[in-house]
Specification:
Helices cover 40% and strands 17% of the residues. It is α/β, with parallel strands linked by helices and 461 residues long. Its EC number is 2.4.1.241.
């Protein structure tokens, strides 16, 4: 390419919060910028100290965004083995206890100057646009690509009700249509969205591939790489697969007699989950959360992962990269993993029992070089560049048989409808969105927003 693209990756979380939307966009930025073909900026939230307490583990706090940036870069370099070659900028945010997630404050498009605005990647585009009250993403950037990480509809269905899920589905489609030129869904487990396609553009932390290489060497020498049996790892929330796992184990205790399983995790439902699993006749041990790359996990042979709320489960990818067998549900969220021989799927309880017992009796197939590459961030970056098509300026498609005059009229009407729809969203979020406080603006070098004066004389951009 004659001219470097400037890719601004906006996301909804940041290290040291170890969640998918902090880790995966960070790796994406590092690998997109690695060869210098693109100029990359990662845009992450900056939280007040009181909100950092709710989000960051082990009491970690930062008095400035520069301290947090140093932590982010150090964490990344320890895992990739190379110095990052991209910029990090922060936007003001707040943590919502009700939603258990970070919300942006004010117009976060201003974080990227107009003369640098080229391509925007919105990691979780629904989340970033629900309350967006500012410049239109499509007018600020030449190309806006959304990457859908989270199956919000499934969480709402489980925790609330179908009516709320229905309205959320409509809102998600609405805001994504307004603000994104194209959307990448990591798997078909997410809702279908306007101008979307399915492609897994996530890779696995290189650390796990290194562990997998050592495992393969062990297998080649003595074929005894695994001394432990079955485990599950995940945040201890019922919605994170524990409910499904409990039901499967409870309903098939006789067939699985003698099975020993270790659960690793911490979370709001820890006490309830531990009490429920202890009632089983099976030998279940519950352990606190620990990094999946910890040597504690290297010797396990089988990961059981019955979760169906994930879009593409990071834990499954990590276990496969380490050379383990994974027993998981035959579900759209696991479709990418089905290409690997160590991925064993089941359709029902009987299939779960059969797959689990066979996995325990089998030795995992050593991970081939091609399979390692498919799991890597190098391959994920190749897939992203292929589907994002950064050089192509988006245009609405229409039938080739349509006359030019009708095509022009049709496009004009669509644009007017989209502008009107965006206007409605702009006015509505005027009542819902919050502005950053003076301290956050000063910390980030942003203009202090004036107090809202209503919307009677306002206009959307």
């Amino acid at each position: 390419m004659d001219k470097k693209h400037h890719i601004a990756i906006y996301t909804t979380a940041s290290i040291p919060w170890l969640t998918g939307t902090s880790v995966n966009p960070l790796f994406r930025a590092a690998y997109l910028a690695k060869d210098g073909a693109q100029k990359v900026t990662l845009v992450v939230p900056w939280l007040p100290l009181k909100d950092q307490e709710h989000v960051f583990p082990n009491g970690i706090k930062f008095s400035s965004h520069l301290e947090q940036e140093k932590c982010v870069r150090q964490w990344l370099e320890e895992r990739t083995g190379f110095a990052s070659n991209f910029s990090i900028r922060f936007y003001p945010g707040k943590f919502s206890l009700e939603k258990r997630s970070i919300l942006a404050l004010g117009d976060i498009t201003v974080i990227i100057p107009d003369d640098e605005a080229d391509v925007a990647v919105l990691e979780e585009p629904e989340h970033l646009t629900w309350f967006h009250h500012g410049k239109r993403w499509k007018k600020k950037f030449r190309l806006v690509v959304g990457i859908v990480h989270t199956n919000y509809l499934e969480y709402v269905r489980r925790e609330r009700n179908a009516v709320q899920a229905f309205f959320l589905k409509q809102i998600n489609s609405w805001v994504v249509d307004i603000y994104c030129h194209k959307v990448i869904r990591l798997s078909a487990a997410t809702q279908d969205l306007p101008r979307s396609l399915v492609c897994n553009v996530h890779g696995v932390n290189p650390k796990f591939l290194q562990i997998g290489m050592k495992t393969r060497e062990k297998q080649q020498h003595d074929n005894q790489a695994f001394s432990k049996g079955v485990y599950y790892i995940g945040k201890m929330l019922w919605s994170k697969g524990y409910k499904e796992l409990l039901r499967l184990l409870r309903d098939h205790q006789k067939e699985l007699a003698g099975l020993e399983i270790d659960l690793h995790g911490s979370g709001e439902d820890s006490a309830q989950i531990e009490a429920a699993f202890k009632k089983l006749e099976l030998a279940v041990k519950v352990h606190p959360a620990c990094d999946h790359a910890d040597p504690l996990f290297h010797d396990y042979k089988v990961l059981l992962n019955p979760s169906t709320t994930d879009v593409v489960c990071t834990t499954t990818a990590e276990a496969l990269a380490m050379g383990k067998i994974v027993v998981c549900a035959n579900h759209p969220s696991n479709e990418f993993f089905m290409q690997f021989p160590n991925c064993r799927t089941y359709d029902d309880g009987e299939g779960f029992v059969k797959a689990t017992l066979k996995a325990l009796s089998d030795e995992p197939a050593p991970l081939a070089d091609k399979q390692r590459h498919e799991l890597s961030w190098e391959a994920a970056t190749e897939r992203f560049l292929e589907v994002a098509q950064l050089d192509i300026t988006p245009m609405r498609k229409s039938s080739k048989t349509t006359s030019k005059s009708f095509l022009s009229t049709s496009l004009s009407l669509k644009k007017k409808f989209e502008d009107a729809s965006a206007g409605v969203h702009f006015v509505g979020t005027g009542f819902l969105s919050s502005q950053p406080n003076e301290e956050q603006c000063k910390e980030l070098g942003l203009a202090i927003p004036s107090k809202k004066k209503g919307f009677s004389s306002g206009r959307w951009i």
